[in-house]
Sequence to fold (679 residues):
Amino acid sequence: MELQSSVSELKGIGEQRVKRLQRLGITTIQDLLFHFPRDYEDRSNFKKIADLELGEQNTFLARISKSGETIRIKNLTFTRVELEDETGKVNAVWYNQPYLKTAFSIGEEYIFFGKLQKKYGKQEVVSPQYEKVEAGKAKGSIVPIYPIGEGLSQKIFRGFIQGIFQELKQPVTEFLPDWIRKKYLLCERNFAMYHIHFPADEDSFFMARRRLVFEEFFLLQAALLQVKSILHQNKQGIVIKNPDSFQEIQDYLPFSMTDAQKRVLQEIKEDVTSGKVMNRLVQGDVGSGKTAIAMAAAYCIIKEGLQVAMMAPTEVLAEQHYHSFCSLFQPLGIKTVLLSGSLKSKEKKEVLNAIALGEAQMIVGTHAVIQKNVVYAHLGLVITDEQHRFGVRQREMLFQKGESPHVLVMTATPIPRTLALILYGDLDISIIDELPPGRQKIDTIAVTTKYRERIHKFIKKHVEEGRQAYIVCPMIEESDKLEVEAVTTYAERLKQEIFLEDEIACVHGGMKAEEKQKIMQAFAKGDIKILVATTVIEVGIHVPNAVIMLIENAERFGLAQLHQLRGRVGRGTEKSYCILINESKSKIAKERMKVMEDSGDGFVISEMDLKLRGPGEFFGTKQHGLPDLKIGNLYRDMDILKQAQEAAQLFLANNDNHEEKERVQQEMKLVWKEQTLSI
Ligand code: ADP
Ligand code: MG
Fold:
């Protein structure tokens, strides 16, 4: 057995259990080892029998004083064993496990862990867990509790992990050099791995956790720094010769830029006139006008006789950008092309040709823009929109399509600044912290399910007045299939009960891209009035005539995500509404809904979400494009994060030890597998 072996090599594991583990994302021994406990039970302090507390889980050490008897009442059997210590006696009972009758012998010593309950006037410890100890040598333990869901018991899961340590005494390989471990006071890796699962005591737990958090952050930071050096490598940046175009473009835009937009544009101007390669992240709330920034920057580069490529995460979004760019650029004589996966081969050929010859000046597309067959004549700027959907590698690929083109990344994901500096370590950051004027506030209200019918009528009324609406269905995390079902049944029901057949359509992740696109286009044109969707609509779609956003099971979403969804309405001149159906009665859920009702500011909302839900869940989602962190917590472990960042810098800067570097590389691959860093 080795780390990369399948879990099926574990002792006592059947096909069923292999499947159950798979559901938890565990297929290899390594996965299992990195499936850390979510909590621990302290069974290291033994109580005396006389001190056992009624209704509580108790850990105690006792001798078998009367061996088992099995009692049968109707179809229930239970096995009773009498236990004693120097302070008294107590019975333990187990239901329907008759084989326990012969499992215990008088005089043997066990550690028991179970609840003391009163049954028929007598106190008994009910179905305790037990562990045999050599008489007089009992040592209690801190027992891990794993996040495992249904179908597996803690005991069995724990047994798997124990099995690994029995089979492979030192399952992991140290990859941090000694000097880092000394400098940052970190324990050895195998020690950490063992004690995170089976801490000997509190101290060893803290040591173990600190080490593992550190290594996780270290790998993350080292990966980021590497990307940075690939992207920067002292390359000479293209210098803009005609900076006046930054002023010029503002006259062509149909609106005047906000102060925040002007400031960001100024920062971009400084970058592209500096001789360095620009590598800038523009962070701005939904609707803050990031596209205008992209257009302005693109214009200035194109005026230099260079090409600009913009990559969007979805076909729909790419198409939308294409139209926006066309409407601005066409009158200015700038040729814009759309490069999408759904082009017919003849069209595609033409487009590729135009790109290669340099006739196409502005290239908008999806991943298609980084494919091998795309050859640019002279790429000056690459822009990625909603970049948290892209991996670093993709950004790198786009970058390598040209001779050190400038790079601009756009994201609506609000992250507090200090954190952003660490996470987006390889990028300079600009923030658009102002919305264009005249944006009306979107009326947001949170309601219970009782109001659902009334809300449907409310939507109906607006549809009759010619408006459109989105309905976002409950998020079902466990299964895509269930999610598809939920969306389609919801849409069906609405058709039967209230809306006309052809007014309503649904989109979900299970659809083919083409199909999805067709519906989105129909919705954008106004042919479809109501779009029932999963969160696929989250990114960037712009339909000014849509005025209602109804979100079912709003309590299941992150607030930042709700905010993004809400940003789909309020894009025209009509009054817009966001209605959140909250099915939870919990106080926190209500408070979170209240935040949505009260605030329209993405940064405030994400800070509040953090406060209310805690960082675990906030960062548990994919919204920041980080690889899954198994143990580190970006807020609580900020100190360790800073140390790890420093260590990674030292490691990469002053280290000629090829072997050490290779080991770290190796580890990155092992830990993240095919997951890319999307920062
Ligand atoms: P996002 O930052 O979410 O990508 P967009 O760039 O799509 O936002 O802009 C949203 C809408 O606001 C667009 O219709 C755009 O034309 C408009 N807009 C952008 N900047 C301004 C501005 N300074 N004044 C008025 N409208 C603007
Ligand atoms: Mg956008």
Observations:
- The domain at 443-599 is CATH 3.40.50.300 (Rossmann fold).
- The mean pLDDT is 85.
- The first helix runs from residue 15 to 23.
